[in-house]
């Protein structure tokens, strides 16, 4: 059975991914947190301090999920952001090089910045507008340099706006649902930006396909190829929950540099046999029902 090392295995994407990988692979989870899954061999280590001596032998692939992803936190703490997102990635790439393993890096559509053309394909210019996006682009460049210099099998997956159960509190859909659980007024920033929301199950399927099928250096967009404004998302949740809650747009909660519209061109990963299966309505319903179940 192939051995897969997953960094950040106990996070949002990692927890969903490892549930699926356990059916086919021996999973080793790398995280700095104390708690983890009993079914997974755990390595409790900071990715900035990891070395080849800390991991088991014969790792077939490293799937690198660990990162600081809160855009606002990264903006306020740039040194921490670059330390984890860039230095941590380079540490893991060096291990992958030495053990000759495949490497999958989870990046973000934020690297594109303000789009000059829609939909956004993988060859769209990259102009990051935030510290977080800059850290991910820097890590991408290091990935590409390792692939070019050492002939490594490295894949970069640029995720658009992922949502679903267990998502972190800084993501907008999670902000809406968590507020709705407590009161009847939702306070958000700018309601007009349109985002390409992709449900977590579709993201996991994409990662699994890249793991199995990508053989050389590749970059893949993973998005639904549709976009919805924050206000539209709120209206969909209203219909699903049958709750007529109030929505307030508060200027201080808006980002200083806002991107008006984002939508992916995910044609490339579709050639591997992938397609998004979860509509925004179905995904929001499943997400909301998960959080309601947690209250019982």
Keywords:
single chain, alpha/beta, Rossmann fold, 13 strands
Summed up:
The chain is built from 9 helices and 13 strands. Helices cover 38% and strands 19% of the residues.
What does this structure look like?
- The protein has 296 residues and is an alpha/beta fold.
- It has a domain at 3-164 and 198-223 and 265-271: NAD(P)-binding Rossmann-like Domain (Rossmann fold), CATH 3.40.50.
- Helices cover 38% and strands 19% of the residues.
- It is built from nine helices and 13 strands.
- The strands form four sheets. A seven-stranded parallel beta sheet has the order 3-2-1-4-5-6-11, sandwiched between helices. A two-stranded parallel sheet has the order 7-10.
- Helix 4 (131-150) links the parallel strand 5 (102-108) and strand 6.
- Helix 1 (12-21) packs across helix 6 (200-213), helix 3 packs parallel to helix 4 (131-150) and helix 7 (230-241) crosses helix 9.
- The longest helix has 22 residues, at 78-99.
- The radius of gyration is 19 Å and the shape is globular.
């Amino acid at each position: 059975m192939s051995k897969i090392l997953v960094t950040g295995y106990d996070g949002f994407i990692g927890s969903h991914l490892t549930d699926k990988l356990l059916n086919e692979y021996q999973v080793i989870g790398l995280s700095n947190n104390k708690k983890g899954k009993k079914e997974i061999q755990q390595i409790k280590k900071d990715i900035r301090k990891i070395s080849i001596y800390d991991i088991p032998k014969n790792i077939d692939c490293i799937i690198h999920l660990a990162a600081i992803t809160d855009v606002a936190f990264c903006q306020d703490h740039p040194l921490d952001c670059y330390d984890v997102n860039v230095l941590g990635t380079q540490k893991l790439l060096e291990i992958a090089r030495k053990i000759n393993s495949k490497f999958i890096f989870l990046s973000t559509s934020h690297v594109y910045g303000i789009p000059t053309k829609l939909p956004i394909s993988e060859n769209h210019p990259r102009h990051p507008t935030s510290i977080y996006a800059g850290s991910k682009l820097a890590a991408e460049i290091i990935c590409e340099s390792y692939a070019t210099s050492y002939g490594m099998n490295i894949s970069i997956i640029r995720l658009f706006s992922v949502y679903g159960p267990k998502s972190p509190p800084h993501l907008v859909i999670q902000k809406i649902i968590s507020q709705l659980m407590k009161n009847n007024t939702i306070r958000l920033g700018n309601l007009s930006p349109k985002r390409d929301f992709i449900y977590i199950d579709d993201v996991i399927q994409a990662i699994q396909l890249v793991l199995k099928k990508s053989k050389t250096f590749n970059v893949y967009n993973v998005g639904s190829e549709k976009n919805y404004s924050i206000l539209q998302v709120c209206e969909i949740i209203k219909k699903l929950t049958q709750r007529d809650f109030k929505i307030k747009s508060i200027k201080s909660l808006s980002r200083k540099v806002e991107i008006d519209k984002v939508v992916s061109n995910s044609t490339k990963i579709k050639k591997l046999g992938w397609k998004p299966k979860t509509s925004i309505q179905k995904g929001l319903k499943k997400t909301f029902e998960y959080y309601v179940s947690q209250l019982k």
